[in-house]
Amino acid sequence: MGRHHLGRTAPRRRVPGRVSRVPALVGVLVGLLLAGVVATPAIAFWRATGTGSGTGSTTTLNPPTGVTAPASSPTTVPVSWTASTGIPAPSGYYVLRTSSGGTSAACGSSATSLITGTSCSDTGVAAGTYTYRVVAVYRSWTATSAASGSVTVTAATKLAFTVQPTSAVATQAISPSPQVTVQDSAGNAVAGAGRTITVALGTNPAAGTLSGTATATTNAAGVATFAGLSIDKAGTGYTLTAASTGLTSATSSAFAITVGVASKLAFTTSPDTSFTGRAFYTQPVVTVQDAGGNTVTSSTATITLALSPATATLGCTTKAAVAGVAAFTGCSVSAVGTYSLTATSGALTAATSGSFQVVAAPTALLWSGYSATVCSGPTGTAASLTYTFCLNVLGNGTFTSRVQLSDSAGNAVVNVGPDITVTLTTANGTATPTTLTIPHGASVTSATTSFTPVYLLNTSSTVTAGSTGLASAVAALRSLT
């Protein structure tokens, strides 16, 4: 049996491989404290398992630098920055906008909605003064940049003509080119490229047409330039309007467009359907014009007409313009057909009329809607009537009729020429009225004539309806047979 010693403790046995962990933990804590003192923010990462000793290292998430925004901007502010350097690299950024009213997220970004690039556009910013900061993010760590310079945001509210249109010659470019500027409510220019502005005619005293660059976009200064604008019709008191979505439109000051040099001829009146050998009802009118179609009132050019096709004779040829207008008279065509006229004058651009018809002319006059009192009859034709027994105890008979335009077959012909005057001549009697008219577009006179015979020793009285170039109509009223 062994001995048992009272009051003595048996010595501890050291287990091989067992190491004290206290020094290692102390090292960790000291490293963390030192990292907190040297840099902010910082990250540190260690892992220790099992037994033994370990070492640790620290690194810093660097903030982005060079945050830039323009000193003034419309409601969309461009922001850019230089990416963070070093390790770890950030997984993205979000942007903060700060004003006297506080700080809010910008560019549609947030801590959970990161921007992976190094620029953004902050849209819909209210008028005011701001600075921008950019926050780099890596896992749960962040690093915030220094603030940008101040940005003054001005809200665009209206347009203004800052270069007004000036008077110009018809079809020639207005110079200098009109300019329209985007402005705030105080009339200050609001910078910003890419806004679309359209100009149009406002007051349009001569029904002119605007040509040229009518739609333009603003440059960086918020100015749109409209090059090559021109108006074709001469007039005084034109204005331009400018419009852009969401902005109050603008109206320019008034300006004039003047007539240019003579460059062409134009038929301002063309003939229409006419009779062979008779003057056109609508005589041609030719005008000397500038490139925009304005009458050149200073022109006295001599204008020559030609018939096309040249298968008949044209009854007029030349006419000198008066105040830029040549109004022809007496024009006619000798044969049936379809024609047009060509007008020429020196170096001026020639003009061609509309086509027109020339139809067979009427040949005769006939009585139309005729009647007689007391008399018996009539006998004969509408071209030659005879009444008998026009004298009895009741008195003398009377004859009343209109006069009709007729072709050689006796058919009524509508007058496509000028009004035709019919003259009434009598033998042994009186006619009232003594002249009648067959108007343009009608086939009979617009009024009737009334013939009253006078019987003395004579036994017959006559009334004759006549007109130049037409066979006459005669009516005879006999006292007996």
Short description:
Residues 63-160 form the Fibronectin type-III domain. The chain is mainly β.
Overview of the molecule:
The chain has 481 residues and is mainly β. The chain has four domains: 65-153, Sandwich (Immunoglobulin-like), CATH 2.60.40; 158-258, Sandwich (Immunoglobulin-like); 264-359, Immunoglobulin-like (Sandwich); 364-478, Immunoglobulin-like. Helices cover 4% and strands 42% of the residues. The strands form twelve sheets. Strands 4, 6, 7, 9, 10 and 11 form a six-stranded mixed sheet that branches. A hairpin with a 2-residue loop joins strand 36 (391-392) and strand 37 (395-396). The protein is rod-shaped and about 150 Å long. Residues 52-74 are annotated as: Disordered. It comes from Actinokineospora bangkokensis. GO terms for molecular function: hydrolase activity, acting on glycosyl bonds. The chain crosses the membrane at residues 21-46. Residues 61-74 have a biased composition (Polar residues).
**If you average the pLDDT, what whole number results?**
89
How far the N terminus sits from the C terminus, by CA atoms, comes to 200 Å
Total beta strands? 44
Strand content: 35-45%
What is the CATH level 1 assignment of the largest domain? Answer: Mainly Beta
Rg, rounded, reads: 53 Å
Helix tally equals 1
Name the CATH homologous superfamily of the largest domain: Immunoglobulins
Low-pLDDT segments: 1-48
- State the oligomer: single chain
| Biggest sheet record | 6 strands, mixed
CATH topological fold name of the largest domain: Immunoglobulin-like
- The helix content, as a percent range, equals under 10%
Instruction: Assign the CATH architecture of the largest domain.
Output: Sandwich
Based on helices, strands and strand pairing, what is the structural class? mainly beta
Structural domains: how many? 4
What is the overall shape? rod-shaped
